[in-house]
Amino acid sequence: MVEQQEASDDAVMTRIGQAIMLLHGGDREEARNRFGALWSEIGADGDALHRCTLAHYMADTQDDPGDELAWDLRALTAADGLRAAEGPGGEGAGGARAAEHRDTPAVRAFYPSLHLNLAADYLKLQRPESARIHLQRARAAAVSLADDGYGGGVRAAIDRLELRMREE
């Protein structure tokens, strides 16, 4: 039964990855369609990593800044839901579920990018105070990122957005 669940989880992540490749390949509409279908399958109570990942990338397919913000907020909510299930030190209500979730560190690694995207969304919507708050949260969360390509890229993007905000 556990193996069947893991295979199912892997299939969902594979499908999310395929839609991400479409998005990065420039086919935003098809990526949006696939993400939408997956979101319907996963549901509001689905796996937090799936919801976080999917919503994080679905935001990038949106044409309207308000819709982009809504998807980025869904991604953050999913990440927060898994963190809350962990409880302090990984224990507490729902802690068993979170402790078994092998991808909890992957969700945590999303936080700098999640807050960075929210800061950019709020800036597009001309809400600079909200943008500053999320930019500060992105910078604070980024200290836990590794000094690798991903971590360096996220930190550089935070610096670029901060510079852009100072110039406006």
List keywords for this structure.
168 residues; 8 helices; mainly alpha; single chain; 79% helix
How would the blueprint of this fold be written?
Layout: H1 2-24, H2 28-42, H3 48-58, H4 65-86, H5 95-100, H6 104-124, H7 128-142, H8 149-167
Helix pairs in contact: 1-2, 1-3, 2-3, 3-4, 3-6, 4-6, 6-7, 6-8, 7-8
Please summarize what this structure is.
The chain has helices at residues 2-24, 28-42, 48-58, 65-86, 95-100, 104-124, 128-142, 149-167. The protein is mainly alpha-helical and 168 residues long.
Shape: globular
Helix fraction bin? over 70%
Query: Mean pLDDT, rounded to whole units?
Result: 86
Largest sheet: none
Taking pLDDT < 50 over at least 5 consecutive residues as the criterion, the unreliable ranges are 88-100
- Give the helices and strands as they follow along the chain: HHHHHHHH
Total E-strand runs = 0
Structural class of the helix and strand makeup?
Answer: mainly alpha
Strand content: under 5%
Rg from C-alpha positions?
16 Å
Number of helical elements:
8
Distance between the amino and carboxyl termini: 55 Å
Provide an overview of this structure:
With 168 residues, the chain is mostly helical. The chain is 79% helix and 0% strand. It contains eight helices and no strands. The radius of gyration is 16 Å and the shape is globular. The model is unreliable at 88-100 (pLDDT under 50).
